[in-house]
Specification:
Blueprint: E1 20-23, H1 27-37, E2 39-45, E3 52-57, E4 60-65, H2 71-84, E5 89-98, E6 108-116, E7 132-133, H3 136-149, E8 153-160, H4 172-178, E9 183-185, H5 188-198, E10 201-211, H6 220-225, H7 229-237
Helix pairs in contact: 2-5, 3-7
Length: about 240
Amino acid sequence: MTLKAPTHHISAQPGEIAKTVLMPGDPLRAKFIAENFLEDAVQVNSIRCMYAYTGTYKGKKVSVMASGIGAPTMGVHAWELYNLYDVENIIRVGTTGAIHDELKIGDLVFALGACYNTPYADQYKLSGTFSAVASYPLLRDAVDKADQMKAKYMVGNVYSTDIFYPEYDREENERWSKMGVLSVEMETAALYIVAARAGKKALSILTVSDHVMTGEKVSADIREKNFTDMMKIALEIAE
């Protein structure tokens, strides 16, 4: 079977999605980015409310599309964007729960790598454990831009988990923290794995929305609309 765009999950026609796509998990954050940062933005997908828009930012064609929650939905959408829409760069702009003592609400996390418990990479039947890592050119440009903006950030490992509500082992995040992992989220590992297989670029720029260890958190409305530094950095480095 030959696959081609549009798909069951993305209704955009070939050519309607830019080479660089920003991917928040939240569809309303995708809408917020399109309405507040893109010029002449046009909605190109609404299937399952995974809103996607294409417009321009400082003269560059850029798309933004929601990924939804977790590895499976990120994997589906990223795979189709890379393989069927000729996307070259996906930059995740999402929220994350801090497990590192030095991270505060609103700080940025650049995911150099992603530890994970998802079986997503099992499909490739590798004889060892795959390291899910960012594309260095995107990471370098993002860090440089963050320095110019004087944004507070850390670079390092995140933990991508399939389990939001653990049934038994509630100390797991503490053990990951002892290994230097910065924060917990659900999509980065799948994105990096799909990008590696497709030979494309990927980066996760995350904003701390809560601290797992202290219980501090912010509202959904703040998560949707207030964490703009990661959006600006991603748009500035879009190719």
